Amino acid sequence: MPKRYVIIGGDAAGMSAASQIRRMDKEGEILVFEKEGVISYAQCGLPYWVGGVVPEKKKLIARTAEEFLNRYNIDVKLYHEVVKIDPSKKEIKVFRREEKDEIAVPYDVLLIGTGSTAIVPPWEGRNLPGVFTLKTMGDAEKLLDWLSSHTPTKAVVIGGGYIGLETAEALHSRGFKVTVLDLAPQLIPTFDKEIAEIAQDALTRHGVEVHLNEEVVGLEGDEKGVKAVVTKNGKFEADLVIISIGVRPVSELAKEAGIELGPKNAILVNERLETSIPDIYAAGDCATHFNRIKNAPDYIPLGTTANKQGRIAGINMVGGDAKFAGVVGTAIVKVFDRTIARSGLGERDCEALGIPYQVVLIKARPVSHYYPWEDEILTIKLCYHKDNRKLLGGQITGGLGGVDKRIDVLATALFHEMTIDELQALDLAYAPPYNSVWDPLQQASTVAQRG
C-alpha cells in the first residue's frame, strides 16, 4: 500500500522535502498543506522586488501548485491551515479557508515546515495604515498595493538586521527619505562593532539616517495612516513604517502536540531531522540547526539551511539514512556599495561561550597590487582559538567584488575545522584581475602566525 506523506508548509523546506520524496518514491501520496495562496518562492528576494531590482512577482516563484501536481504528482492544498497535530491518531486537523470547514487528514509520515514569522511587539499603533512587515509574499504584495495608491515621503525601518538594511536600501531607491532605528548600540548585532560600523557608514553616505539605542514604545497616527514612530528618546516622523526586528519559529502546533522544543522555541530535531515523536520530522525556519562550531543545537534561520534540511528530511521520510551535517552560521548582505559577510563566531560569541580566542584584523586588496582596482579594499577579521589555533569565525567587508569568494572559503575552512595556520596551505585560484599570489585570507593567516 502506498505511503502517505503529509507536509505542513509549502515553502523552502516543505517543497524541497516533497520533491526529494517523489524522486525516491514514485507511488507514494504526497500532500502539502499551505495556509497562504503561494508556494515555493524566494523570500530573500522580497526587498529587491519592493525596490524594483526584481521587476515582477512571478520572477520570485520557482514553481506553482499546478506545476507540482502536473509534473510531479505532488498535491499542494492552498489556503489550507493545519490547526492541530494528533500524534496518537497519526492525523492532522486542517481548516479549509475557502470551504470554511475543518477536516481530519491521516498521515504515515509527517513533516513540519511551518517556517518563521515576523516579530511584532504589542506597540500601540502597530496596525495603523502604512505599517508593514516584509516577511512573506503577502507582506510584499500588501506593501506594493498600498504604495500604488499612496505617496509617502518619509519611511522608517525599525530594525537594523539583514532584512532591515536591504529594505532601507529598497525604499531609498524608490525616492523615500529613510530612517533606520535600532534598539542595539550597533547595526546587524551578529557582527562585531567595527564591521557593523562599515555597514552604517554605507547607509549614511547614501543619505539614510541611522539612530541607535532607540527603544520604540509606539506609533502615532489616525485612520488615514501612521504619522510617527515614538521612542523613549523622541519622535520620528513617518508616513511609512516597516517593522523588521527579527523572526521567531512557528512552533505552536508542535508544542501543542507534545513535541520537544529547543533554542528560541524552535522544534528540536536530531541529525536526521526527526523530532521527539516518531514519524514526525521538522525542517527549516521552524526547526533547530546543529551548529558545528558550538557543537550544539542553534537557531540560525536561513533559506540555504531550509532547503538542505528539507531535502535530508525527505530522504529519511522515505526510509533513507541521510544526516544534516550542521551549519557554521554563514551570511552575507549587500548595503548599497558595500558587502558585509560573516561565518562562524564573533568576539561576543566567544566571550559568551567562554572560549579563549585571539583576533587578527587586516585590510587587503582582492587583486594584485599592480592591477587597477577602484572598488573598496577588503577588511578581514578572523577569530581563532588561543590554544589550538582552530578557526572560530570571521567577518569580511568590502565593495561589491571579492567578499563572497572569501567568506565561502572561510565557511569551508570552518566546516572542516581547519586552523588559522592551515589557511596558508590552501591552493586558491590566482590571476592578477582576481587575486594576489597570497589571498587576503592567507595574508591574515600570516599576520596571525607572526603574533
UniProtKB/TrEMBL annotation:
This is N-acylamino acid racemase. Residues 4-296 form the FAD/NAD(P)-binding domain. Its cofactor is FAD. GO terms for molecular function: oxidoreductase activity. Belongs to the class-III pyridine nucleotide-disulfide oxidoreductase family. Residues 331-436 form the Pyridine nucleotide-disulphide oxidoreductase dimerisation domain. InterPro entries: FAD-bd_OxRdtase, FAD/NAD-bd_sf, FAD/NAD-binding_dom, FAD/NAD-linked_Rdtase_dimer_sf, Pyr_nucl-diS_OxRdtase_dimer. Keywords: FAD, Flavoprotein, Oxidoreductase, Redox-active center.
